Amino acid sequence: MNLPKIVLALGYAGLIPFFIGPAWWTFSPETAPQWLDHAWLAWAGLIAAFMAGTFWGFALPAVQGPQGLIGLAMSAGLVLLAWAAVSLSFAPALAALATVFMLLLLADFWRERVLDTIGGYFRLRSTLTAGVLISIAWRFMLIGP
What we know:
The chain is mostly helical and 145 residues long.
């Protein structure tokens, strides 16, 4: 089964806010509002928690077995890590969110091999995670000394 086009469209559309902040700070930093970084971090944390929630959804059908329970625990842990990451000051939050997104990808790698899978989902997640990590690295480089 291939992913519906709407899933692909919404997935890639979700990357747009990740690139708005760094692009704004790069091309017109003097016009960047004070709330921009806060809103940007909130978006990143929201998406990280959402992705951890999707992991929960994949684990639910297998919840009676040990693999499903592991998946539920991983999902809950990743949600808590996303929440903790956005609770930090800006630069540490960037590093923590990058770590959360990498852990989400590792969890999806595990899920792909252990739990039921949907064709094309891991490829989409890998691509979107690469986009997220690029945007986080871009914003981190703009912090300066």
